[in-house]
Design brief:
The structure is a single chain. The protein is built from eight helices and four strands, in the order E-H-H-H-H-H-H-H-E-E-H-E. It is an alpha+beta fold and 312 residues long. It folds into two domains: 196 residues, Alpha-lytic protease prodomain-like; 69 residues, 2-Layer Sandwich (Alpha-Beta Plaits), CATH 3.30.70.1350. A four-stranded mixed β-sheet has the order 1-4-3-2, with helices on one face. A hairpin with a 5-residue loop joins strand 2 and strand 3. It is elongated. The chain starts with 9 loop residues before the first strand and ends in an 18-residue tail after the last strand. It is a multi-pass membrane protein. This is Cation transporter.
Length: 312
């Protein structure tokens, strides 16, 4: 039989947006890395270095990623509309998914170029390689520093931070490799360093790719344990049972929750809901919650209340 919502207490809370405006960081990061990509690509062609070209290709994908993440962050700040009742927050998730696809497309291109340099080794200009890679250490390190304060609360910002930090470490490797090739004359070291760069990038990006796919599938965000939230709700005063608990991301920063709580003869319902909303935000950073209070558990099959999630 259908579940009747009438006569029950409801609460819907929309908390403030996540703190931090990284527009200036995105702007600086994009501008600096565009200049660096141009210089690194030109130097890689002049020095005939696959390591520099592969690093330039990845830095270009980082520029595109920063631009997409920045655009999505700006779009997410727009007010809700008649059709987009949650606003445009989901743009950050879509941008993260597109960034992951662009990243691995760039990796495929870099792999092709590196294999070609391995098959056809040629002399490289060691000082140019070391000089440009050293500049990359400074630029990528500075860009990573711009995002350091927000990398724990937003997968988009964390992606920018990790990409820049990884690029800084990769540039260190390019400097070392350029020195080895320059002093030993072992040309095969250059494409070998290119393969190492690919491995580092692929490994460091896998976690972000997995998390963005999960966000796209509306899985509970990685930092939230659904079992812990369930136990937290069941421990609230007067709550005897719950059903239809759903936790999903509205964006890479904002999380939503809906749940039906069975609280027979509950007193002070409004105060209970206000305290619950405050505690959910404080304990789990869940800013958007819709809670329905019920006097008894619904009949079997009512409103999908017996649809239990699979234990994954």
């Amino acid at each position: 039989m259908p579940h009747d919502h009438a006569g029950h207490d409801h609460a819907h809370h929309h908390g403030p947006p996540a703190d931090g405006n990284f527009s200036r960081a995105f702007g600086w990061g994009i501008a600096l890395n565009l200049l660096f990509v141009a210089g690194e690509a030109a130097g890689g062609l002049w020095a005939n270095s696959s390591a520099l070209l592969s690093d330039a290709g990845h830095n270009l994908s980082d520029v595109l990623s920063l631009a997409l993440a920045w655009g999505a962050a700006l779009l997410a700040r727009r007010r809700a509309a008649e059709r987009f009742t949650y606003g445009y927050k989901g743009a950050t998730i879509q941008a993260a998914l597109l960034n992951a696809a662009l990243l691995y497309l760039a990796l495929g291109f870099i792999l092709w170029e590196t294999i070609d340099h391995l098959r056809h080794p040629a002399p490289i200009n060691g000082p140019v390689v070391m000089g440009l890679a050293g500049l990359g250490i400074l630029i990528n390190g500075f860009t990573a520093w711009l995002f350091r304060s927000g990398q724990k609360g937003d997968v988009n910002v964390r992606g920018a931070y990790l990409h820049m930090l990884t690029d800084m470490l990769v540039s260190v490797g390019v400097v070392v490799g350029g020195a080895l090739v320059y002093f030993t004359g072992w040309l095969w070291l250059d494409p070998l360093i290119g393969f190492a760069i690919l491995a580092i990038i692929g490994y460091s990006s896998w976690g972000l790719l997995r998390e963005t796919v999960q966000l796209g599938l509306q899985a509970a965000p990685a930092g939230i344990e659904v079992a812990a939230v369930r136990q937290f709700l069941l421990a609230r005063p007067g709550v005897t049972a719950l059903h239809d608990l759903h936790i999903w991301p509205l964006s890479t920063q904002d999380t939503a929750l809906t749940v039906h709580l069975v609280r027979p003869g509950g007193q002070n319902g409004n105060q209970f809901l206000r305290e619950l909303q405050h505690d959910l935000q404080h304990e789990f950073n869940i800013r958007h919650c819709t809670v329905q209070l019920e006097d008894e558990f619904p009949a079997m099959g009512a409103h999908g209340c017996c649809d239990e999630p699979d234990k994954q």
